[in-house]
Design goal:
Chain lengths: ~300, ~425
C-alpha cells in the first residue's frame, strides 16, 4: 500500500547563536503512520518538534504539511504533547481542560462534549472538579494526553508520551495511540524507550548531532543494518564457518551466522542440515536499541 | 484575537477569584474610609455640648468664666455642689469645677476628655494672666491689638488672564499620593505578572499553551488580564470607600450636627470637605491622567517584568534582573521631593518626559498645573516606550520560557534578542 506523505521537513537549519541545533535535517512522515523520532539527548529532537509546531521558526529550509508550506492555519491540525509538560496546579481539571481545548480553537460546547467523551473513555470523569494539585503525576499525564488529542488533529506529536505512567496506564495510552493511527491520524513519537519504538512505530528517524543519520520504515532499517544474519539452533555445538556463511557468535547450541554475498538461505540450510540437526532457523533482526547505539558510535 | 481574549479571561478570573484579592479589595477601602471618617468623627464628637458646674467660695474666677463653643458653665453653690457630688451620674452636669484658694479641681464620673480639661485650663490661665497684667498697670488692649495673624492667599492666573484659587498644600498632597500610588501599583501588578510567568514556566504548562497560541499572545494576555485586575481593584476601592464613608457618616455623625448646617443637609460632609480643600485643582483631569499613566506605566514595566520571569527558573533568581528594571522607578520615587520643590524646573520636565519615570513624576507635577503640550508629549512618549519595551521583552520572553535549568547572564539575554522567531 503506497501511502502519501503528510509532513516533510527539508534541509532545515536552526541555530541559536553559535550553537547549531539542527543542521540540514530531512524527514518525511507518511500519512497514518507512527513515526519514531530517535536520538540521544541534545540531538535536536525537541527543536525539530518545536519547529513543526511553529513554536520557533527555522533559519533555513522548508516544511511541507499536507502539500502546503507550513503556516499559521496548520496550528489547529497539529497536536503537541511536549516532554516538559504541566498544568496550572490551582485550577480545576475540567476548567483547565476546557481552557486548553478552547485555545486550540474549539468552541466551548464542542470542547465540553469531546472532553466528556474522552474522560469517559479513560474513566476519569470523577476528576472533573478536582484541582490539578490533588492529582498524581500519572493522572495529570492523562489529562495532558486528552487535551493534546481533543481537537482531532491530523498530526500528533508526542514527546516521551509514556514517561510518568505505570505499566498499566502506559498500556492504555499505547492502545489509544494505536487506535488513533488506525483511525487515520499521523503520529510522530519521540521516546527513549526502545521497546515501545519496536512495538508501535512504523517508521523511524535517528537524529544525532543535529543531523538525520537514518530514516525509513523500521523493517527496512533493520534489514539494512544487519542483512543476511540468522539465528540457528542445533542439537550439537560443533558448527564451523564455511565459504557460504560465517559464524558471528554462539551461545551453547545457538549460533548467529551471516550468509555471505551470493548465497541463498536455502543453500545454507541444506549445507548445515547435512552434518547437523537443525532445531530452529530464523532471520535474526537487530533490536532498535542495537541499531541506535551502533549508529551513534559509528558517527 | 479570540485566543488572546481567552487568555485574558483566564488570567483575570483566576486572580479575581482568589481569596487574597477579595480580602484586599474589601479591607483596603475600610482602612481608607476609616482614615477619612475617624478624624471627622472625632472632631465632631468633641463638639458635643458639655455642661459643667462651677462652685467657688468666692466669685473671683466664676464671674469671669465664659461659655465656649461646646462647654457651658453653670455656677452653683457649695451646698449644691456637695449634693450633686454624691450622685454626679444622674445630674445634668458632665463635671464639677471646684475652686478653692487658687486650686482648681475637676470632679467627673468618668475620665475627662483632654480637650475639655485643656479648654478650662487655658481659660483660667488667661484670667490669671490678665489679672496679673492689670496689677502691673499694662493696658490689655495694647497687647491684644499687637497680636497678628496673616494668611497669604495664592491664586493662579492662566493664559487667558482668568484667576483661580490655588492651594499648594492640596497640590502637594494630591501629587504625592497619586505619584506613590502609581509607584506602588506598577510594582504590585508588575510583580504579579512576573510571578504568573514563572508559575507557567515552572509548571511546564507554557509549552503546551504556546503550541496553540503565540508566545506574544500569551504574554500580552497575561499583562492585559492583570491590568484589568488592577483596574477592577482600583475602581472597587474608590466605590467602596465612598459607600463605606457615606454610610459611616450617616451613622456616626450627630443628626444635630447635620441639621445645624441646613444649607448642606443633602450634601456629604466629606465631599464638602474635599471640595473645599482642593478648590482649583481639576480632580477629574487628574483621575483620568492617573488611569492613563497607571495603565501605560504598568503595561511598559510589566512587559519587562514578564521578560525577567521568563528568563529565570525560580523567583529566587529574579533579583539580579529585577533591580535594573526597578532602578528608574525607585529613582522617580526618590525624586518626588525635589520635583515638588520646583514642579516646572528642568529636572521635573525631563523626568516627566522619560517614559520610565513619567508615570510617577507626571502625576506629581499635574496638580501644580502642566502645559497641555507637555502632558500630550509625555503621554505619546510613554506609549512609544511601551511599544519598544514590549517588543524587546517579547523577544526575550519567547526564548526564555522554553529554557530550563540554565543560569542566564545579561550576555545571554542580549543574544536572545537576535534570535529569529
Amino acid at each position: 500500500m503506497k501511502k502519501g506523505i503528510l509532513l516533510s521537513v527539508e534541509d532545515v537549519i536552526k541555530k541559536y547563536g553559535d550553537y547549531t541545533a539542527l543542521n540540514k535535517v530531512n524527514i518525511s512522515v507518511p500519512k497514518s503512520s507512527i513515526y519514531g523520532l530517535l536520538g540521544p539527548n541534545g540531538a535536536g529532537k525537541t527543536t525539530l518538534m518545536r519547529i513543526i509546531n511553529q513554536i520557533t521558526a527555522p533559519d533555513h529550509g522548508t516544511i511541507i504539511f499536507n502539500g502546503e508550506k507550513l503556516n499559521k492555519n496548520h496550528i489547529k491540525d497539529i497536536g503537541y504533547l511536549p516532554e516538559e509538560r504541566g498544568l496550572y496546579k490551582k485550577m480545576k481539571v475540567g476548567e483547565q481542560a476546557l481552557y486548553l481545548a478552547q485555545l486550540k480553537g474549539m468552541s466551548y460546547h464542542e470542547a465540553k462534549e469531546k472532553l466528556k467523551y474522552w474522560f469517559e473513555k479513560l474513566e476519569i470523569t470523577h476528576w472533573w472538579s478536582k484541582r490539578v494539585e490533588e492529582l498524581s503525576k500519572g493522572m495529570a499525564q492523562k489529562i495532558q494526553f486528552v487535551v493534546t488529542v481533543i481537537h482531532k488533529p491530523e498530526l500528533l506529536i508526542f514527546d516521551e508520551p509514556f514517561s510518568g505512567f505505570d505499566p498499566i496506564n502506559a498500556a492504555i495510552i499505547r492502545k489509544e495511540i494505536l487506535q488513533l493511527r488506525d483511525n487515520g491520524t499521523t503520529i510522530i513519537l519521540s521516546t527513549h524507550r526502545m521497546e515501545s519504538v519496536e512495538e508501535i512505530c512504523d517508521h523511524i528517524a535517528l537524529i544525532n548531532d543535529s543531523k538525520t543519520i537514518l530514516e525509513g520504515p523500521i523493517e527496512k532499517i533493520k534489514e539494512d543494518f544487519q542483512p543476511n544474519t540468522y539465528e540457528v539452533s542445533l542439537d550439537t555445538n560443533n558448527l564451523v564457518s564455511s565459504n557460504q556463511f560465517k559464524i558471528l557468535s554462539h551461545d551453547k547450541n545457538t549460533y548467529k551466522i551471516k550468509i555471505n554475498e551470493g548465497f541463498l538461505v536455502k543453500q545454507t540450510i541444506d549445507i548445515i542440515n547435512k552434518e547437523h540437526k537443525i532445531l530452529s532457523f530464523k532471520k535474526d533482526s537487530a533490536s532498535v536499541e542495537e541499531i541506535f547505539i551502533k549508529s551513534i558510535k559509528d558517527e | 484575537m479570540n485566543k488572546i481574549f481567552l487568555i485574558i479571561r483566564r488570567e483575570y478570573l483566576v486572580r479575581v477569584k482568589k481569596k487574597s484579592f477579595i480580602i484586599m479589595t474589601i479591607l483596603a477601602p475600610i482602612l481608607m474610609a476609616s482614615l477619612i471618617i475617624v478624624p471627622v468623627f472625632l472632631a465632631n464628637q468633641d463638639q458635643q455640648n458639655r455642661l459643667i458646674a462651677v462652685s467657688e467660695d468666692d466669685t473671683k474666677y466664676s464671674s469671669k468664666i465664659n461659655d465656649t463653643d461646646n462647654i457651658n458653665f453653670e455656677i452653683i453653690t457649695e451646698d449644691e455642689s456637695e449634693k450633686i457630688r454624691k450622685n454626679l451620674t444622674d445630674s445634668p452636669y458632665y463635671a464639677i469645677l471646684d475652686i478653692k484658694n487658687d486650686t482648681f479641681t475637676l470632679f467627673a464620673s468618668q475620665q475627662i476628655g483632654l480637650n475639655i480639661r485643656n479648654s478650662i485650663q487655658n481659660q483660667l490661665e488667661k484670667i490669671i494672666e490678665r489679672e496679673k497684667l492689670k496689677q502691673a498697670g499694662i493696658d490689655i488692649k495694647i497687647i491684644e491689638n499687637s497680636k497678628t495673624k496673616i494668611n497669604i492667599e495664592t491664586k493662579i492666573i492662566d493664559a487667558k488672564g482668568e484667576v483661580t484659587d490655588s492651594n499648594t498644600e492640596a497640590s502637594i498632597g494630591i501629587g504625592f499620593i497619586t505619584g506613590i500610588l502609581i509607584y506602588m501599583f506598577i510594582f504590585m501588578y508588575g510583580t504579579m505578572v512576573m510571578r504568573g510567568v514563572i508559575e507557567e514556566k515552572t509548571n511546564r504548562i507554557v509549552e503546551i499553551i504556546i503550541s496553540s497560541v503565540k508566545p506574544f499572545q500569551l504574554m500580552m494576555g497575561k499583562i492585559i488580564g492583570v491590568a484589568l485586575v488592577g483596574l477592577t481593584q482600583f475602581i472597587l476601592w474608590i466605590l467602596l470607600t465612598i459607600i463605606i464613608s457615606s454610610f459611616a457618616e450617616l451613622f456616626l455623625i450627630d443628626a444635630a450636627e447635620i441639621s445645624n448646617n441646613t444649607d448642606t443637609i443633602n450634601q456629604s460632609l466629606i465631599l464638602d470637605e474635599i471640595t473645599k480643600l482642593t478648590g482649583g485643582i481639576d480632580l477629574i483631569k487628574i483621575f483620568f491622567c492617573f488611569i492613563f499613566f497607571f495603565l501605560f506605566g504598568y503595561l511598559m514595566y510589566s512587559a519587562l517584568f514578564a521578560a525577567v520571569g521568563s528568563a529565570v527558573d525560580a523567583e529566587a533568581d529574579t533579583q539580579q534582573f529585577v533591580l535594573p528594571i526597578t532602578i528608574p522607578l525607585i529613582l522617580a520615587f526618590i525624586l518626588i521631593q525635589p520635583v515638588m520643590d520646583n514642579p516646572d524646573g528642568t529636572l521635573a520636565f525631563w523626568l516627566s518626559m522619560n517614559p520610565l519615570t513619567s508615570p510617577v513624576i507626571m502625576m506629581v507635577r499635574l496638580p501644580f498645573g502642566v502645559d497641555i503640550w507637555e502632558l500630550v508629549l509625555s503621554m505619546v512618549l510613554l506609549i512609544l516606550g511601551f511599544i519598544i519595551t514590549t517588543y524587546l521583552a517579547a523577544k526575550i520572553y519567547r526564548t526564555g520560557i522554553l529554557m530550563y535549568g540554565k543560569k542566564i547572564s545579561y550576555k545571554e539575554l542580549w543574544k536572545w534578542l537576535t534570535y529569529k522567531g
